[in-house]
């Protein structure tokens, strides 16, 4: 019976196989991912790019930002080519190895068919031995040994029996396990060098690499923001629950990424002692006398001054402050996303009663406003038309006359060709073409929401305390589809005047905030997951009493252009934090729609509410949504390029989507960051319905992080019905006496404000 033996590779054949396989596993993906490629731009897309001086200068700066790119690509190509040459050499060398025992067939070696007689075997052996014998001129020692072994295997009875039974003339041998390493590795004279190499790789290099990676990774958050910066955002957002826009900009400038002690890429120049004070004298309302740490530190004041100069589009010294401005501005988008996340987490903590003060909606929206401001290099109170090339403050007078008063990009796009050319008459033909390219490629979002209660028997009826699932469908088209389209112009202008189409601009927000401060103090109610205060009993039945009359009298507002879109689906947003209550809503089955649906979707919702419920269909629908969410574990960050000549890097369009209650100043859902809106995108958000019946109005908001004036808001009316009574036969659901007393004494005080309460106030 054969035994087992382990042996190192004496000839080196198996070692070469190992090296060949290992090298191929590295070279194939490395070639695919790291081989330098020249981006072949589509001529049609290249022709649509803006050729204004600012965009051309930006492309030059981007190309100059990587001076060693060609040298780096050369060495990458050299390394990959060398690897493939080595792979080819090893493949040729492996193919030349002699494996005579791998397929030992004595008949084939002797050149005889199976079943040949002994005489034929002897005759063939004598004939070939005269040729292959080592003493002959044509002799071959290895071939003669194989010939002799084949002759013995067929003439010796025992050898023939072993070959027929075991495939080896010598009988069963030991099972050999080869180690794909050359034998010189375990030789005594080489042991010191081998041990030294093992110690260098596994005891020095590997721990150093892992330790360096770990030390760097623990300093950053998920958005690649320093944890010290995140802690500072938490502190100031908690300290200032109602944060103005300039205060948010001041905190952004104090990020640790702009401090040389935390970031070695920051350059401190001697010229800053002269240039920064001169810049401060030119900037009003900078707040440089603020004594808070780190807002008063020199790096923070310098970053703040550069951001203000960027928003005012000031000219800075090219080799000093302009370089610093480009670096600071390029880091701001990720910092703003982290700031929004911090405010959102503080709101969740306030709902859980872990912190006493709740940040307002204005705080998180002001943080969001910073992103398009930084990307476009423009204050939010400035005209959105300044985002177009060649247009400055002096040209805004051409957009206002007795007949037309153009304030937004949408109004400009909806003009006819002759009217638009007349408005832009101060531009020559080439400049006008560039303006139309930029305007035509800007986004026009069809924004549609659908509300349902998935785990309820009737998904179109929202009951008190139910988990409301809101499906938001975003469909992006280019604004050039609106060129000369006057069919929706009157409707759009009317909605903008009424404030139902877009999120109010800063000036409008400030006016509304001033006029509504007294209302918000009285209107604000605690959310459902916070302990309800015991209110007077006289308010217990007011929402319910008026609820029977109010819904019938509520008129349905006309559908907006964004709501009259189709519903194509391409991808879906990954699942957000359920505990923070992500959700957006518009009541499908209610006749109290206020423009958040198109006419077709309203008819569908009425058909759904009138048809009998099918449990199997609802369950299948729910399972399909879960499967889609599970398939999309990652999140793409590629959508459409943004025209932003004042931003030093290439930028993609991203969006924030969330639901809030503006009457009670409450954020209902975590802002969903949509980063993959190419053609259409669908996301699901959830929140808890008010725990008391009534008619509520919520706002579904969509905010751009790249363009000013592209925000949208849809008001949604939700008729919350009273929840079904809990069956008495389930003792585990019985409410305690304290809960019953709390409900009776607290009355119907909701965490939100109904429309009836607002009218009464």
Automatic annotation (TrEMBL):
<feature type="compositionally biased region" description="Basic and acidic residues">
    <location>
        <begin position="503"/>
        <end position="525"/>
    </location>
</feature>
<keyword id="KW-0472">Membrane</keyword>
<keyword id="KW-0813">Transport</keyword>
<feature type="compositionally biased region" description="Basic and acidic residues">
    <location>
        <begin position="566"/>
        <end position="580"/>
    </location>
</feature>
<dbReference type="InterPro" id="IPR001623">
    <property type="entry name" value="DnaJ_domain"/>
</dbReference>
<dbReference type="InterPro" id="IPR004179">
    <property type="entry name" value="Sec63-dom"/>
</dbReference>
<feature type="transmembrane region" description="Helical">
    <location>
        <begin position="74"/>
        <end position="92"/>
    </location>
</feature>
<feature type="compositionally biased region" description="Acidic residues">
    <location>
        <begin position="736"/>
        <end position="761"/>
    </location>
</feature>
<dbReference type="GO" id="GO:0031207">
    <property type="term" value="C:Sec62/Sec63 complex"/>
</dbReference>
<feature type="region of interest" description="Disordered">
    <location>
        <begin position="721"/>
        <end position="761"/>
    </location>
</feature>
<feature type="transmembrane region" description="Helical">
    <location>
        <begin position="15"/>
        <end position="35"/>
    </location>
</feature>
<feature type="domain" description="J">
    <location>
        <begin position="105"/>
        <end position="167"/>
    </location>
</feature>
<dbReference type="GO" id="GO:0008320">
    <property type="term" value="F:protein transmembrane transporter activity"/>
</dbReference>
<dbReference type="InterPro" id="IPR035892">
    <property type="entry name" value="C2_domain_sf"/>
</dbReference>
<dbReference type="Pfam" id="PF02889">
    <property type="entry name" value="Sec63"/>
</dbReference>
<dbReference type="GO" id="GO:0006614">
    <property type="term" value="P:SRP-dependent cotranslational protein targeting to membrane"/>
</dbReference>
<feature type="transmembrane region" description="Helical">
    <location>
        <begin position="192"/>
        <end position="215"/>
    </location>
</feature>
<dbReference type="GO" id="GO:0003723">
    <property type="term" value="F:RNA binding"/>
</dbReference>
<dbReference type="InterPro" id="IPR036869">
    <property type="entry name" value="J_dom_sf"/>
</dbReference>
<dbReference type="GO" id="GO:0006620">
    <property type="term" value="P:post-translational protein targeting to endoplasmic reticulum membrane"/>
</dbReference>
<feature type="compositionally biased region" description="Acidic residues">
    <location>
        <begin position="581"/>
        <end position="591"/>
    </location>
</feature>
<feature type="compositionally biased region" description="Basic residues">
    <location>
        <begin position="531"/>
        <end position="544"/>
    </location>
</feature>
<protein>
    <submittedName>
        <fullName>Translocation protein SEC63 homolog</fullName>
    </submittedName>
</protein>
<keyword id="KW-0812">Transmembrane</keyword>
<dbReference type="Pfam" id="PF00226">
    <property type="entry name" value="DnaJ"/>
</dbReference>
<feature type="compositionally biased region" description="Low complexity">
    <location>
        <begin position="545"/>
        <end position="565"/>
    </location>
</feature>
<dbReference type="InterPro" id="IPR014756">
    <property type="entry name" value="Ig_E-set"/>
</dbReference>
<feature type="region of interest" description="Disordered">
    <location>
        <begin position="491"/>
        <end position="620"/>
    </location>
</feature>
<keyword id="KW-0256">Endoplasmic reticulum</keyword>
<keyword id="KW-1133">Transmembrane helix</keyword>
<keyword id="KW-0653">Protein transport</keyword>
<keyword id="KW-0143">Chaperone</keyword>
